[in-house]
Amino acid sequence: MKPAYRRILLKLSGEAFAGRESSVDFHTTAVMAEEIAQAVRCGVSVAVVVGGGNIWRGKAHQAGGMDRSTADYMGMLATVINALALQDALERIGVPSRVQTAIQMQEIAEPYIRRRAIRHLEKGRVVIFGAGTGNPYFTTDTTAALRAVEIGGEAILKATKVDGIYSADPKLDPKATRFERLDYLEVLQRGLAIMDSTALALCMDNGMPIIVFDMNVPGNITRVVQGEPIGTIVTNAARGEADLVKQ
């Protein structure tokens, strides 16, 4: 089956790497790698942006008086640990990958170079972006939006623990309803915290669809890239049906 997308950027939170007893869980990371591998086998170019919240929570330390920039840089280093863990899991199942970081650390990863990243994707390698944008005060959501635009991605797949975007927290409000499609401005106006406002604005300005889906369901990444109506899609309303995952 021909995929609906030729190139996607997968956004993984740091929590996606955590297990019950470990901040970077071997089994959990291996499962994620296999899910990514399935999409690659469908002929899709896959780039990944990882968070670092399973290792470092900068906001908690900022509340205690830590300098914001220092806390953010430490968070960037945490994302590199997750990126290396994912690379190792992918390589163990035969999927070639590269880690590129926005902060140079040449002994363990490549520096982020846009043209090199695109070349890796063209060769069928998974590219994992670590260290955020390399700048404090920017989230990994913003990194995902920026890298997706830079590499010519066709959609951002945001992996979460729920099956889309809801009107309220479905765990707290039994009347919460799931949206199938939203406009960027509507997300902002409703205060739906799927991405920060900087990331949403960047996606809106560049017409980059965001698909929010449940990562815990096996095969969901492949279903999304094949065009199945999984989760919630956020697009420009003016772009109409063309952005609806080519449904």
Describe the structure.
36% of the residues lie in helices and 19% in strands. The chain has eight helices and eleven strands. It has helices spanning 26-41, 58-63, 68-92, 114-122, 140-150, 184-190, 197-206, 220-225; strands at residues 7-12, 45-50, 97-101, 110-111, 126-130, 155-160, 165-166, 178-179, 181-183, 210-214, 232-235. Strand 1 (7-12), helix 1 (26-41) and strand 2 (45-50) form a beta-alpha-beta unit. Helix 1 crosses helix 3 and helix 5 (140-150) runs parallel beside helix 7. It starts with 6 loop residues before the first strand and ends in a 12-residue tail after the last strand.
Element pattern in H and E: EHEHHEEHEHEEEEHHEHE
First-to-last CA distance: 14 Å
- The top level CATH class name: Alpha Beta
Low-pLDDT parts are 238-247
Superfamily at the CATH H level? Acetylglutamate kinase-like
Rg (CA only): 17 Å
- Using the alpha-carbon principal axes, give the shape: globular
Tally of alpha and pi helices: 8
